[in-house]
Amino acid sequence: MRKVSYLLEGGSMAHEDFCGHVGKMNPGDLQWMTAGRGILHAEMPCSEEPAHGLQLWVNLRSSEKMVEPQYQELKNDEIPKPTKDGVTVAVISGEALGVKGQLRLSEHSDQSGGSEEVDGNSDNTVVAATKDPELLKLGDPEKAHQVSSHSVHTTKKDTDKLPRAAYVVDNRLEILTR
C-alpha cells in the first residue's frame, strides 16, 4: 500500500514512523509513504488552524507488496508550477503543460474564470476534488453534470474524453488519473 498525502491549505501536519522518517507538511507539500512489508506511523495536526488536503491510498502491484517501507517528501517550493492561459498547474507528478513525473496527479488553479481540458489517455479514472462543488462540472460541456465536492468520473475506452472542468476565479481542482 502506498499513501499519497497532499496538503492544500490551512494548518500543518506532522508525520513520524518507526523507520526514523520525520516530517512536517505545510500547504502545498506532498508526502509519499510506501508501507511495503509494514510500517507504523503517526500523523497529527501541529497547528491550531485546520488542515485541508487529499490523501490517496494506492494498492501496490503484487510484485511490490513486500518492498522495504519508503518515505519521501516534496515541498511546495520544489513543485514546478507552469502557467498557461491563466491556469496554474502544480505538477506533483504525471504530466501537465509539458512537465512530467511518475503519477498523474496535478492541481489546477484557474484565475481566468474559463475552463480547462485535461489531456490523457482513454480508459482513465479521474478523481476530482474541489472546495466549492457549485463551481465544478465534469464531462462534455454541452451535457456537463454537477459533481459533489469529491467525485470520481471514469472515462470509457475510445468513446469518451477526460472531463472538462469549468472554473471560476480562485477555484481549485485536484485531478488524479491513471
Automatic annotation (TrEMBL):
Region (Disordered): 106-126, 140-159
A single BP term in Gene Ontology: monocyte differentiation
MF terms (GO), sorted A to Z: quercetin 2,3-dioxygenase activity
Domain Pirin N-terminal: 3-58
GO cellular component, one term: nucleus
Family: Belongs to the pirin family.
The protein's name: Pirin
